Amino acid sequence: MSLVGAFKENSMHNNKDQIRLALAHMLADDHFKSSPQMSAFLSYIVEQTLAGQSDRIKAYTIAVDALGKPDNFDPQSNPSVRVLAKRLRDTMDDYYQSRQCNSGIKICIKPGSYVPTFEQPALTSTNDFSLSNATILPSALAETPRQMMTLLRDSFVHYHRQIAAIGVLLMAVFAWNLSANYTRLSRASAATPMTTTLVPVDIASMEHIEPHSNRPTLPRLTVINAHPSNPKARQFGHHVIQGLREYQTFIVQEHVPSHQGKTQDWPEDYTLHYSLLDDSAFSVMLSHAKSGEIIDKAQIDMPGAHDNQTVMPSVMRHYAKRLLNTQGVILSNYFENNELTPTMRCTLLFDAYYADKTRAKHQSARQCATELKNAGTIPEIPAIL
Predict the structure, then answer these.
(1) Sign of CA dihedral 371, 373, 374, 377
(2) Does 372 have pLDDT greater than 70?
(3) What is the span of the domain harbouring residue 287?
């Protein structure tokens, strides 16, 4: 028996303690403390591999044994394990990039596999190790075909504008260096360069929302302004919404006080309240719409926003990224606490297929598209499937 892709059997046996120590250090880091599901996922696959049971590491066993899913869990129709694996890879990338020293054993999970590999840079030249030469690539949303997104967008009954051709833009943005407890967000903290993948035209935010009792097809994020008559607060809210709408997995809507009655809150809905503290600072609070649970609080400082019109949009794009990227505050909470809506589930299956075009993922994506068509959500199955 060999340890897949990293150590030979004799070397693995001698390094189990080092591997477990590396795992313990990783799980104790802030990157993992807020996500027990991600920690359980990583612990399970590492321990199974060290026990010589790497052949048991499948989406089903991870879901049932590590994540507490029911025995009837179907990984083909439910992509939650794949989604969590992608978040885990991204978080591990961030973890290793943030470390001052790269010595010691490194735990890796290559795209397309759930079996971890273990690398020890200081010993790569010895014969005791058979290290993988493949680069551990950061997981990123692959190209999303125009046909798929157009069909999904055009299926919403309240669309008020046609969508132009969609392409995926790889946008270079600056990472927002946040404090450990995320209580202070400042313009100065956006200085560390980082590359991320954004989908600037999305299926979620283009749906015009009216108060209704029917469950929406995607989760909703409602932005609420505590000072609607203040021009500065309105400007802030505009840039918040624009930044959030660069992501495709949520319906982002602005709270409109003039609407009579209250839109029903569903388990997957969130609200973002913000208030003006002074001329250059805002207080922001993210909460779960149905339970009222506060998910996150932040104070956003924007010195110089009066003199530089690019400051506020830039800061809000970074804040939106922190909330809605694949390992952001909202999606982390959503995936750990909610059942996927049909459209959300299909969106994730489509993304998984386009990122890795295997036969199984194609079948899952096509089946989901068929279900959307039968439900009247899309007019036809996209030709690309």
Answers:
(1) positive
(2) yes
(3) 146-337
Sheet holding 270-278: strands in order across? 184-186, 294-301, 281-288, 270-278, 220-225, 251-254
**305 pLDDT more than 60:** no
Of 295, 333, 335, 328, whose CA–CA distance to 175 is shortest? Answer: 328
Per residue in 144-157, pLDDT tens? 444 444 444 444 33
Task: Count Cβ atoms below 10 Å from residue 44 Cβ, excluding itself.
Answer: 18
Total count of residues recorded for the chain: 385
Residues 6+ apart with CB under 8 A from 126: none
Q: Which DSSP string corresponds to 171-219?
A: EEEEE----TT--EEEGGG--EEEEEEE-SS-SSTTSPP---SSPPSS-
Q: Is 202 within 8 Å of 245 (Cβ atoms)?
A: yes
Best CA proximity match to 291, nearest among 256, 254, 265: 265
Residue 173 lies in a domain: yes
Sign for the pseudo-dihedral over CA of 33, 35, 37, 41? negative
* Number of Cβ within a 10 Å radius of residue 248: 24
Closest by CA to 362, choosing from 373, 370, 350, 374, is: 350
Region 30-36: what's the mean pLDDT? 81
Question: Shortest CA distance to 17 belongs to which of 50, 66, 57?
Answer: 50
- Buried-exposed string 28-38: b where 16+ CB fall within 10 A, e elsewhere: eeebbeebebb
Is the overall model pTM greater than 0.90, yes or no?
A: no
Beta bridge partners of 193: 174
Question: Is residue 35 domain-shared with residue 103, that is, in the same domain?
Answer: yes
In a shared domain, residues 287 and 219: yes
